[in-house]
Amino acid sequence: MSKPRWPDLLQPPDHLHIQELLDAFWTELAPLAGLLPRQQFLLAAEQLHTLRQIILQMMLALNGIQRPATHDLNTYLSHNQRSALEKTLLLPSVEPDSQADGWIGQAVSLVVIYRWYAPQLVSKYSLEYPVALERQTNATLVKTLPTWPQEITTD
What we know:
Elements: H1 15-29, H2 32-35, H3 41-62, H4 79-86, H5 101-125, H6 131-144
């Protein structure tokens, strides 16, 4: 009897792409500072989707693979990885008089997840953590969004 085949041809992650993901997270998070005060919720949703896709690729890279073209992504993520990302899928309010807190909550959750995976990727693949980019993005968000946390701890 032959061994069952994986449903997808898996490739190891590209180190340069992982570094690009680490940087792209912060450049994709920064536009929320301009979108949320203007209640541009459709664009904010796109930004959060992009951030979620970056995190997903980071998780897969830590698991040792590039994102495959697949119909069964759950196979390549642990239960904890799936659960963490699924919790960021809750829809915030889009009422005109609502605060941006639900959107900010999603973004902060993604920052927490990023801060869990990014240092592991930096260590595993000998990459650089984008400290300056993170500081710049956080400073912009704190200055622009009144309810953005002054500090996000992941301990």
